[in-house]
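Chain A, query sequence.
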Amino acid sequence: MKDIPDFRSFTFFQNIDPQVILAAVLFFIGVSVLVVVILAAIAALAARSGPASSGRFLVQRVDGLDLDQYFAKRATFSTTVRLELPLGPEKVWKALCDEEFLSWLPTVRGHQYRTDVRAVGARRTLLSVFCALEEQFIVVEQEKTLVYSVIGASLPGLRDATERFVLEPTKGGGTLLKWTTGFSPVLVWWLPVRWLSPFIRPFLKIALSGLRHRV
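Chain A, predicted structure.
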């Protein structure tokens, strides 16, 4: 039977001051409590998410005249998804502007518009389980191009975010839909996360494919 090692024989442990160990334990407990408090606060804010809470934290509006530059360079993350749909541009356009857009996703409850207008300047609120985002239409070309920028959020951390939808009719009477999305966080906007694009695109394409069953 092997002897059980006596950890007290290691000089490393023998030379540690008990006060240092106590300080380390207290520090660990303090950090753990702080993390729990922060997560609880975020959960509480998320639980209160709704149309009125979407403007709690301001988000920088992206200029509609500088979209290519934004998606190509300024956004921390940006990617484009292409999906061909057996539906005409008019039906796809209607689905993009509908209150139920993306509501087929488990965490999305849909959109709520301020008015019935679907023109430049129109605002709507994306309602999800975790947060609410206030979006403003900045480019509207009927049945061709729809661009909106996030201008408010119920939770902090988002510096800017914009999405662009481009509709192109196909020969068979369908539509080639191009969805470009980009965003930048407040604190770590400099992180090189664009390399994640190939891994995220399949999930975005699956999310967008829900349009097939909603039109």
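The chain has a mean pLDDT of 83. Residues 18-47 form the longest helix (30 residues).
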